[in-house]
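Project standup — Tuesday

K.O.: blocked on the structure for the chain from last sprint. Re-posting the sequence here as requested.
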Amino acid sequence: MYNVNKKMLIYIVFLGLMVILIGNSTIVAETKPDIVKMVKLLQEDKDLDIGDWSVLAREINKEIATKQEFESEVYALKQKYPQFQWHRKDDASGWKAEALTYNIDSGLTESIKIMTTKEELDTVTYVIYEVKGQKWKKGNPAFFTTTFQNRVNDLFIGAPSIFSCIKGSINDNMDSVLNSKTEDLLDMFQAREIESVHETNFTSISAHSTLFKQPLTKEKLNLQFGLRTEGLGERTNFVVGTPIITFEY
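H.V.: unblocked you, prediction finished:
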Protein backbone atom coordinates (compact mmCIF):
# COMPACT_ATOMS: atom_id res chain seq x y z
CA MET A 1 0.00 0.00 0.00
CA TYR A 2 2.85 2.35 0.91
CA ASN A 3 4.59 1.71 -2.43
CA VAL A 4 1.35 2.33 -4.35
CA ASN A 5 0.77 5.65 -2.55
CA LYS A 6 4.38 6.62 -3.10
CA LYS A 7 4.11 5.92 -6.82
CA MET A 8 0.86 7.89 -7.01
CA LEU A 9 2.49 10.85 -5.23
CA ILE A 10 5.44 10.81 -7.65
CA TYR A 11 3.02 10.71 -10.58
CA ILE A 12 1.01 13.68 -9.22
CA VAL A 13 4.18 15.73 -8.66
CA PHE A 14 5.42 14.89 -12.16
CA LEU A 15 2.05 15.84 -13.66
CA GLY A 16 2.07 19.12 -11.74
CA LEU A 17 5.54 19.98 -13.03
CA MET A 18 4.43 19.27 -16.60
CA VAL A 19 1.46 21.63 -16.20
CA ILE A 20 3.76 24.35 -14.84
CA LEU A 21 6.24 23.90 -17.70
CA ILE A 22 3.52 23.96 -20.33
CA GLY A 23 1.99 27.02 -18.70
CA ASN A 24 5.33 28.81 -18.66
CA SER A 25 6.01 28.00 -22.31
CA THR A 26 2.61 29.44 -23.21
CA ILE A 27 3.38 32.64 -21.32
CA VAL A 28 6.74 32.98 -23.07
CA ALA A 29 5.10 32.49 -26.47
CA GLU A 30 2.45 35.10 -25.71
CA THR A 31 5.00 37.68 -24.55
CA LYS A 32 7.42 37.22 -27.45
CA PRO A 33 8.40 40.74 -28.64
CA ASP A 34 6.49 41.98 -31.70
CA ILE A 35 9.70 42.58 -33.67
CA VAL A 36 10.70 38.93 -33.19
CA LYS A 37 7.28 37.72 -34.36
CA MET A 38 7.44 39.97 -37.41
CA VAL A 39 10.94 38.90 -38.44
CA LYS A 40 10.15 35.20 -38.05
CA LEU A 41 7.13 35.50 -40.34
CA LEU A 42 8.89 37.64 -42.94
CA GLN A 43 11.86 35.25 -43.06
CA GLU A 44 9.53 32.39 -43.99
CA ASP A 45 8.85 34.13 -47.34
CA LYS A 46 11.93 33.50 -49.48
CA ASP A 47 11.05 36.43 -51.75
CA LEU A 48 11.58 38.93 -48.92
CA ASP A 49 14.90 40.39 -47.78
CA ILE A 50 14.93 42.20 -44.42
CA GLY A 51 16.94 45.41 -44.18
CA ASP A 52 16.77 48.21 -41.61
CA TRP A 53 14.58 47.77 -38.55
CA SER A 54 13.68 49.75 -35.45
CA VAL A 55 11.92 49.26 -32.11
CA LEU A 56 10.86 52.42 -30.29
CA ALA A 57 9.37 52.61 -26.78
CA ARG A 58 7.68 55.86 -25.70
CA GLU A 59 6.00 57.14 -22.52
CA ILE A 60 4.85 60.41 -20.99
CA ASN A 61 6.54 60.76 -17.60
CA LYS A 62 4.25 62.78 -15.32
CA GLU A 63 6.78 62.76 -12.47
CA ILE A 64 9.13 65.18 -14.27
CA ALA A 65 7.73 68.72 -14.41
CA THR A 66 10.52 71.00 -13.17
CA LYS A 67 14.07 71.56 -14.37
CA GLN A 68 15.39 70.20 -11.08
CA GLU A 69 13.46 66.94 -11.57
CA PHE A 70 14.70 66.80 -15.17
CA GLU A 71 18.32 67.29 -14.11
CA SER A 72 17.98 64.67 -11.38
CA GLU A 73 16.61 62.07 -13.83
CA VAL A 74 19.33 62.77 -16.41
CA TYR A 75 22.04 62.51 -13.75
CA ALA A 76 20.67 59.18 -12.51
CA LEU A 77 20.58 57.76 -16.03
CA LYS A 78 24.14 58.93 -16.76
CA GLN A 79 25.29 56.98 -13.72
CA LYS A 80 23.30 53.91 -14.78
CA TYR A 81 24.38 53.99 -18.45
CA PRO A 82 27.97 55.29 -18.58
CA GLN A 83 28.57 53.52 -21.90
CA PHE A 84 26.14 55.95 -23.60
CA GLN A 85 27.38 59.28 -25.00
CA TRP A 86 25.16 62.02 -23.55
CA HIS A 87 24.27 65.39 -25.09
CA ARG A 88 22.16 68.26 -23.73
CA LYS A 89 20.16 70.88 -25.60
CA ASP A 90 18.00 73.49 -23.87
CA ASP A 91 16.02 76.22 -25.61
CA ALA A 92 12.95 78.39 -25.10
CA SER A 93 10.62 75.44 -25.72
CA GLY A 94 12.11 73.20 -23.02
CA TRP A 95 14.96 70.83 -22.12
CA LYS A 96 16.32 67.82 -23.96
CA ALA A 97 18.90 65.14 -23.19
CA GLU A 98 19.91 62.47 -25.69
CA ALA A 99 22.22 59.48 -25.31
CA LEU A 100 23.64 57.14 -27.95
CA THR A 101 25.65 53.95 -27.97
CA TYR A 102 26.70 51.59 -30.76
CA ASN A 103 27.69 47.97 -30.18
CA ILE A 104 30.13 46.90 -32.90
CA ASP A 105 29.63 43.20 -32.17
CA SER A 106 25.83 43.17 -32.35
CA GLY A 107 25.52 46.01 -34.86
CA LEU A 108 22.84 47.62 -32.68
CA THR A 109 22.43 51.35 -32.08
CA GLU A 110 20.58 52.34 -28.91
CA SER A 111 19.31 55.81 -28.05
CA ILE A 112 17.63 57.35 -25.00
CA LYS A 113 15.83 60.70 -25.24
CA ILE A 114 14.24 62.75 -22.47
CA MET A 115 12.38 65.85 -23.63
CA THR A 116 10.46 68.29 -21.44
CA THR A 117 8.36 70.90 -23.21
CA LYS A 118 5.47 73.27 -22.64
CA GLU A 119 2.17 72.11 -24.16
CA GLU A 120 -0.64 74.59 -23.61
CA LEU A 121 -0.70 75.09 -19.81
CA ASP A 122 1.17 71.92 -18.86
CA THR A 123 4.79 70.83 -18.80
CA VAL A 124 5.08 67.44 -20.48
CA THR A 125 8.05 65.08 -20.40
CA TYR A 126 8.53 62.37 -23.04
CA VAL A 127 10.90 59.46 -22.52
CA ILE A 128 11.91 57.55 -25.65
CA TYR A 129 14.13 54.50 -25.99
CA GLU A 130 14.98 53.19 -29.46
CA VAL A 131 16.99 50.29 -30.85
CA LYS A 132 18.01 50.16 -34.52
CA GLY A 133 19.76 47.67 -36.74
CA GLN A 134 20.71 47.52 -40.42
CA LYS A 135 20.11 43.79 -40.68
CA TRP A 136 18.66 41.09 -38.45
CA LYS A 137 21.14 38.87 -36.59
CA LYS A 138 20.69 35.58 -34.76
CA GLY A 139 21.45 37.15 -31.38
CA ASN A 140 18.73 39.82 -31.67
CA PRO A 141 15.85 37.78 -30.17
CA ALA A 142 17.89 37.19 -27.01
CA PHE A 143 18.65 40.92 -26.81
CA PHE A 144 14.93 41.76 -26.80
CA THR A 145 14.04 39.24 -24.11
CA THR A 146 16.86 40.39 -21.81
CA THR A 147 18.65 43.72 -22.39
CA PHE A 148 15.74 45.49 -24.07
CA GLN A 149 13.30 44.44 -21.35
CA ASN A 150 15.74 45.52 -18.63
CA ARG A 151 16.10 48.94 -20.29
CA VAL A 152 12.31 49.31 -20.48
CA ASN A 153 11.97 48.44 -16.78
CA ASP A 154 14.64 51.02 -15.88
CA LEU A 155 13.48 53.87 -18.10
CA PHE A 156 9.71 53.79 -17.86
CA ILE A 157 7.27 54.11 -14.99
CA GLY A 158 4.48 52.06 -16.54
CA ALA A 159 3.97 50.16 -19.79
CA PRO A 160 5.22 52.32 -22.68
CA SER A 161 3.83 52.29 -26.20
CA ILE A 162 6.15 50.19 -28.37
CA PHE A 163 6.48 50.67 -32.13
CA SER A 164 8.24 48.00 -34.21
CA CYS A 165 9.11 48.65 -37.85
CA ILE A 166 10.99 46.76 -40.59
CA LYS A 167 12.18 47.78 -44.06
CA GLY A 168 13.11 45.38 -46.82
CA SER A 169 12.90 44.45 -50.48
CA ILE A 170 11.05 41.89 -52.56
CA ASN A 171 12.96 39.68 -55.01
CA ASP A 172 10.15 39.69 -57.52
CA ASN A 173 9.77 42.22 -60.33
CA MET A 174 6.50 40.93 -61.73
CA ASP A 175 3.97 43.59 -62.69
CA SER A 176 1.46 42.16 -60.23
CA VAL A 177 3.79 42.09 -57.21
CA LEU A 178 1.97 44.92 -55.40
CA ASN A 179 -1.35 43.12 -55.47
CA SER A 180 0.00 39.64 -54.82
CA LYS A 181 2.30 40.67 -51.95
CA THR A 182 -0.42 42.78 -50.37
CA GLU A 183 -2.55 39.66 -50.05
CA ASP A 184 0.45 37.61 -48.91
CA LEU A 185 1.24 40.09 -46.12
CA LEU A 186 -2.37 40.22 -44.92
CA ASP A 187 -2.41 36.42 -44.75
CA MET A 188 1.04 36.26 -43.17
CA PHE A 189 0.03 38.55 -40.29
CA GLN A 190 -3.49 37.10 -39.95
CA ALA A 191 -4.78 40.60 -40.64
CA ARG A 192 -8.04 42.22 -41.72
CA GLU A 193 -7.76 45.34 -43.90
CA ILE A 194 -9.26 48.51 -42.38
CA GLU A 195 -8.24 51.12 -44.94
CA SER A 196 -5.91 51.32 -47.92
CA VAL A 197 -4.37 53.53 -50.60
CA HIS A 198 -3.63 52.08 -54.02
CA GLU A 199 -1.61 53.86 -56.71
CA THR A 200 0.24 52.65 -59.80
CA ASN A 201 3.55 52.02 -58.06
CA PHE A 202 2.49 52.23 -54.42
CA THR A 203 0.18 50.46 -51.98
CA SER A 204 -0.44 51.26 -48.32
CA ILE A 205 -2.57 49.15 -45.97
CA SER A 206 -3.78 49.77 -42.41
CA ALA A 207 -5.14 46.65 -40.77
CA HIS A 208 -5.99 44.74 -37.61
CA SER A 209 -3.87 41.67 -36.87
CA THR A 210 -4.73 39.02 -34.33
CA LEU A 211 -0.99 38.61 -33.62
CA PHE A 212 -0.53 41.98 -31.91
CA LYS A 213 -2.27 43.34 -28.82
CA GLN A 214 -1.56 47.10 -28.96
CA PRO A 215 -4.42 48.81 -30.89
CA LEU A 216 -4.03 52.41 -32.02
CA THR A 217 -7.64 53.38 -32.80
CA LYS A 218 -11.17 52.31 -31.94
CA GLU A 219 -11.10 50.24 -35.14
CA LYS A 220 -8.25 48.28 -33.48
CA LEU A 221 -5.70 49.30 -36.10
CA ASN A 222 -2.42 47.68 -35.07
CA LEU A 223 -0.61 46.93 -38.34
CA GLN A 224 0.53 49.00 -41.30
CA PHE A 225 2.56 48.11 -44.35
CA GLY A 226 3.50 49.80 -47.58
CA LEU A 227 4.88 48.54 -50.89
CA ARG A 228 6.59 50.73 -53.48
CA THR A 229 8.13 49.84 -56.83
CA GLU A 230 10.23 52.14 -58.99
CA GLY A 231 8.74 50.85 -62.22
CA LEU A 232 8.64 47.93 -64.62
CA GLY A 233 11.38 45.41 -63.90
CA GLU A 234 12.59 47.26 -60.79
CA ARG A 235 12.80 45.79 -57.28
CA THR A 236 9.89 46.49 -54.94
CA ASN A 237 10.57 47.79 -51.44
CA PHE A 238 8.36 47.19 -48.43
CA VAL A 239 7.97 48.53 -44.91
CA VAL A 240 5.82 47.01 -42.18
CA GLY A 241 5.12 48.21 -38.65
CA THR A 242 3.01 47.63 -35.57
CA PRO A 243 0.91 49.42 -34.51
CA ILE A 244 1.98 51.89 -37.21
CA ILE A 245 4.93 52.51 -39.52
CA THR A 246 7.57 54.79 -38.00
CA PHE A 247 9.95 54.82 -41.00
CA GLU A 248 9.53 57.15 -43.95
CA TYR A 249 8.27 55.39 -47.07
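K.O.: great, moving the ticket to review. The chain is about 30% helix and 40% strand. Residues 1-30 have pLDDT under 50 and may be disordered.
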